[in-house]
Design a protein that fits this description.
This protein has about 160 residues and is mainly α. The chain folds into 3 domains: about 1-45, no CATH class; about 50-100, no CATH class; about 105-160. About 70% of the residues lie in helices and about 5% in strands. The protein is built from 5 helices and 2 strands; from the N terminus they run αββαααα. It has helices at about 15-30, 50-60, 65-70, 85-100, 105-160; strands at about 35, 40-45. It has a two-stranded antiparallel sheet. The protein is elongated and about 110 Å long.
């Protein structure tokens, strides 16, 4: 399979990864959740890669797609150039969504977000209505100004005669 060391001092990354995968699989089995995929006795439903996909998707769905790329290790991400403080601030925002330990809090946050979305939708509708009223008022004033201008021109024409 893989040699433990690339040379006498450097561990082989492929070997270390395979050891990590084996340890993870044993942990899943001990927890009773080491379920295999349908029709494939070698592949499990939960893998290290499925966690990686979950993290990428979750962070992207929160609106931090570029950050998600850097977070999972893609070196071409623009977030590799961000300062550590900026990255830490964004991580603080997404961390609760990556945590499995407090389901009640996550559900509460989801409900809070839904109520805020509802409030924003109402505000948006209110602003649209206000803009429409203002647009209608501007059109009416414009029509009145045109009528007054026409009338004024008629009066000036009569006075010149």
């Amino acid at each position: 399979m893989f040699a433990v060391y690339q040379d006498k001092k450097t561990p082989n990354p492929a070997y270390l990864y395979q050891e990590l995968v084996r340890s993870f699989a044993k942990t899943l089995d001990r927890m009773g959740i080491g379920i295999r995929e349908d029709g494939n006795e070698k592949r499990r439903q939960i893998t290290l890669h499925s966690f990686r996909r979950f993290v990428k998707t979750t962070i992207s769905d929160l609106g931090y797609s570029d950050f998600s790329e850097g977070f999972i290790g893609h070196s071409g991400s623009t977030y590799w150039t961000k300062k550590d403080l900026e990255k830490a601030e964004i991580f603080r925002k997404v961390e609760p969504y990556l945590t499995f330990l407090n389901i009640v809090q996550l559900e509460r946050q989801g409900a809070d977000i839904q109520s805020k979305v509802g409030e924003l939708e109402e505000l948006n509708e209110s602003l649209r209505n206000r803009d429409k009223m203002k647009d209608d008022a501007i059109v009416q004033l414009s029509d009145q100004l045109m009528a007054l201008t026409t009338r004024m021109q008629e009066i000036e024409r009569r006075q010149q005669l």
